[in-house]
């Protein structure tokens, strides 16, 4: 008997991650009904018209294939309008989205998804499980951005939908673009061949000055304010350890071919302390402990005026490696002999490669990509990191995955209140280690 999704254990994740790391081919069996239209035009729908969504649409339309954008959906009219204008000015006739196929509101995705062959799911991540589930239900090929959820119930929903996607042979590519980046792919080949032995430790970083703030405006409801400032509320973002640092944590899991069995660490609000920053922390430092005893240290922070660092280093029994999103990869043994030094020039843009490879599979009617298992694994590793820093406790994987701690509002409407509300001074409750209940 198949286990219920909330009892998915470490072995299930390890098996799935080993099979699917790097977007490996799953099947060359042609898809049934690869194009809903029955023509050679691949129709796409954009669900989430912010900067990342517009960028994803740009990359999809920049592939060599015959692609048209036929539907757009967003919670906000102004975001949709801005995206439409930007894409239309660049791609002209490839943008075929008249007013009747421009949908606005919380239910806009339900109207746009049925109109396309491939959907781009690029809203704030709190909505990802709902939108992914619907896209699979509608038998669509899928590109979706990372992270894939913000809490344990969301991860379980994503994993359940992923199983259905596999049964239906629906390609799913997830925007953890380092998996599609040449220096990481080439390094992983050498690591898997044993170049630096067993990985025993590592350090992963995303230390930067932070992101945008959108001030509260007159007559905004609390729901609209939080939606506009989604990065600072966990039901929408998951905190920056989840939304942003998931990239680096994903590399830790990839290189270990596993997920952590427990996580402990610390975090706080040290620099971004005002009411404009919602509820999230501005720094997290955690230890990811794996089943073989290896420990990888993870650090992310949003302080202005700091020395930025976004990269990964790992130490094996025979050598070490340094990696970065700027196409660097330097591998040495412990005597200093250089084993590999990746040429940083002329590498393909991994954001574009994601779409090139996805749409190549779709155009050929092939089933190649099921990125969801490793994306869910790495997303949940980051979520557990948040649980650990907020609570001050050591969080075990299996216990956390079974938690029924949904962060989503009871209903989605502009006059509905999110679960987290400000006090009379406009300040939001902040998780206090030793007091916060996260599971």
Characterization of the model:
- The protein is of the alpha/beta class and about 450 residues long.
- The protein is built from 13 helices and 17 strands.
- The protein has helices at about 10-20, 50-60, 75-90, 110, 130-135, 150-170, 180-190, 220-230, 240-245, 245-255, 350-365, 370-390, 395-400; strands at about 25-30, 40-45, 65-75, 100-105, 120, 140-145, 170-175, 200-210, 260-270, 285-290, 295-300, 310-315, 320-325, 330-335, 340, 365, 395.
- The longest helix has 20 residues, at about 370-390.
- The two termini are about 30 Å apart.
Question: Topology, please?
Answer:
Layout: H1 10-20, E1 27-30, E2 42-47, H2 51-61, E3 67-74, H3 77-91, E4 102-104, H4 108-112, E5 118-121, H5 128-137, E6 141-144, H6 152-168, E7 172-174, H7 182-192, E8 199-208, H8 222-228, H9 240-243, H10 246-256, E9 262-268, E10 283-289, E11 295-302, E12 309-316, E13 319-324, E14 329-333, E15 338-341, H11 350-364, E16 366-367, H12 372-391, E17 395-396, H13 397-401
Helix pairs in contact: 2-3, 5-6, 6-12, 10-12
